[in-house]
Structures are given as structure tokens and as C-alpha cells.
Amino acid sequence: MNTEIDKSLTGEFSKSIWSKFRSGIEQYKLIENGDRIAVCISGGKDSMLMAKCLQRLQKYGNIRFETEYVAMDPGYTTENRNKVMENAEKLKIPLKMMNTRIFESTAKAEKHPCFLCARLRRGWLYKTAQELGCNKIALGHHFDDVIETILMGMLYGSQMQTMMPKLHSENYRGIQLIRPLYLVREEDIIKWADHNGLEFIQCACRITRSEGSSKRAEIKQLIRQLRETNPSVDMNIFRSAENVNLQTLISYHLGEERHHFLDDFDKGLSIKGKNNFAE
What we know:
Elements: H1 2-10, H2 14-27, E1 36-41, H3 45-60, E2 66-73, H4 78-90, E3 95-99, H5 102-107, H6 113-131, E4 136-138, H7 143-157, E5 166-168, E6 176-178, H8 186-195, H9 206-209, H10 215-229, H11 233-240, E7 251-254, E8 257-260
């Protein structure tokens, strides 16, 4: 079974998954020789696929790196915990499952439990990576997560931002966060899972299960609607974060330093120091 799953990455899903995975690694320089990577498994389809891709890259690629496959049990039901371990065994992923009580902590939060959960998980992952001697953490965010984040920032956060392919940790010096599935689309991940007869757990949080429609779900639906009249809308949203013209923004900030277009306007200059005259 595992052999067929491995083959599917360079067979049926060579173009839609494997090539895009490799492109993301190379384009954003996510992995380098000598890296030791904590591959973080949530138990869902995305992180499990990421683990398989990294295994294959480690075995057949030209980059020499080490991996530690770790999963955090935030308070899973026995059924969900067993499902994660069963899938890891089926996929031949040497998974280390570690216990936490994060669900208990987030259940007490009156506001923004998902934000708190993500923050606690992230802190745990960095701490664990450091203890394992890793210099990088790999998360399973994909292309759709990126474009949804862009729109969520604009429509609900009054800001223009994207989900970056890699980041430096602010609190754990020397550790980077990387997203190897950055260019892989969610629909292709679903097809891969279905093709191989794989079933994965979802969020498994009792709080979000009772929330109904989330903001991210609303954005997913909006993108689906836009795609009906513009099939290129996904890529257009993605590329918008690569084609930002600072001269067309009212203001922007770089770290703590904020720039406003009026700062240099009376000098006949744009915020980049060039002439700012209409043609």
C-alpha cells in the first residue's frame, strides 16, 4: 500500500503536487544542506502529504538534511489520536506523539479561541524543535491557505499581507518556519488522499465544531464564486503579493517604521523618492 502511495507522487500527481512541491523548495530556498527539520504533523491531509514529500526529497533529492516527525496531542479523543497514529503507520512516517493540554486552555477562552490555540501550538512547536536540535519547523500550509490569508487580511483585518513561505522565529533564535506546500493547491491534496483511499482527521476541536461558518469558510466560498467568472482569480490573488507598487499605497510600514505618501508629496516626490506627477 505504502509503495503505491509513494509512486503516486511521481506518477498521477507528479505535475500537480510533486513538481510544485519541488518548485516551492527551490524558489523560496526553504531547505539547505545540513538542515535539521521538525516536520509538524497535525493529523490532517496537508501535513501528512508534506511529510511524504519530504521523505521522498530526503531519499532521492540532492539536498542533505535530517528530519524529526512530531505531532502534538492537544487533547484529542481516543478515536482521533488513534486515527493519527494509524495513518502515520500506514504512510510509514516515524511519528513522535507528545501530549499537551491545549484544548483545555482554549476552552476557557471567552474570545478568539482559535487564535489562542494557534499561538499555544506555535509556541509548543518552537520549543520542541529547539529541544530536538532542529533549525527549521515545517508546516503544512498550502496555496489556498495563502490566498485566503490575503483576502482575510483585506476584508476582515483592514490590512494587506500574505502568508510567507518562510519566517524567522522572533522568540527562538536560529529557528525558521517553512511551508513546503506553498505552491500546492488544496484540491490536488484532496485528490491525492482520495486516490490512495486515505482518510484524515479534521481540526478535531469541539469549539470550532460548534461555531458553524468561520471567516475562512466564507472566504473559501467567495473565491469559489469568483472563480466561476474568472478561472485565474486564484493565481491573481496569489501574485498580488508579488506585485506591490509602494507608490500606489496611501501608507505602509516596514517593521516599526511607518511611511505615508504625504511625507514627501509636497516635494514632488513619491514615498520612494521618485517624481510623483500624473501623466
